[in-house]
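#struct-pred

JT: dropping the chains for the assembly here, can someone run the whole complex?
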Amino acid sequence: MSKTTLLITIAFIVSIGVAVFSTNTNTDYQFLKRQLKVSHVLHNTNKVLPNFSLVDHNQHLFNNDRFKGKWTLLTFIYTHCPDVCPTILMDMSMLKSILIQRGVETVPEFVAITFDPKRDTPEVLKTYITHFDKDFLGVSGDQTQIDQLIKPFGTYYERSIEVDGKTVIIPNGQAMPESVTSYSINHTAWLYLISPDGEIFAGFPTPHKPHNMADDIELLISNY
Amino acid sequence: MKRILISVVLIFQISLVHAMDHQKLSAIVIHDPWIRTAPPNAPMLGLFMKIRNNTNQDIRLVSVQATGYVRAELHRTINHNGIMKMQKQSFMPISAQGDLDLKPGSWHIMLIGPEIVPKEGDTSMIYLEFNNGTTQTIHVQVGKGKIMMKHNHYTY
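RK: done, full complex below.
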């Protein structure tokens, strides 16, 4: 083999290697995305969760480390929600049953963080969340930290109050009038799959279809 | 002969009145009502059903009362660009010869402030008031929805 041929061969092999490497890093699970039924890959190394320090319904510290080394299915709820949040939690309960029935190797931990820590104390959450599944975990804590935590998820909420028969919206972060004791919360209703590296890996928009979600979760975890 | 004629007319009138009453009673039919089972500390519960309007007039459900709760409100959940918004309604429209489905994520009745959160299988008494002057009282069982709907079929 001539020196020129050898150089061309090496250059070819290197270019193939570079191409494969760029495909794997730049396309971000393109192949996986095409197979998903009801979820979206949200993996983005630039979107890092802020440091947070909350409290779970057993009064234990719930911080970034609690996402490490295991898969977590996370959502945001509030217990005064009569419709959307109970539906999410019932869907999560059904999803967990489906995954267990299938005998999958990895069943994520199910966690619900409240939008409304003022009313949803750890004690309130414990009674409420474990009604749907004894192993579900509710998380409460400081409102400001929760408001920071939801940002990289793209999660949004706002409070809705009634003043003289008219609906008034209080955006997230804005203080409510002290006289207000009754309010509801408008909010996004996604579920999020958190990877064992503690990063947002995928999201499931509403409405949730537990059987299809189970298919996607199996696929997402096996291709991580 | 005169007595027989009067009796026939009376029987006819009674039958007519009964038929009219029956028609009035079945003008609105409630199918498969259910209250969703909730945690023991739930501050509110959702009530769902299908309302059938058998008349040729649009009808509105204008008021709901529920025994054992502080109050009941008419609500609708709307998905507005991915944000689930709970909107209180002053009425629920049931079109002529049409149905209105009250179901999770859509139209629903919010039962607020239960004295004691009912358990699965318990029943609550619900009063529905429509704008055509009719009212209905239904006994609604607490359950998980789909399973209940196979077994219950309420008509009034």
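JT: nice. The CA atoms of residues 14 and 61 of chain A lie 49 Å apart. The domain at 41-222 of chain A is CATH 3.40.30.10 (Glutaredoxin).
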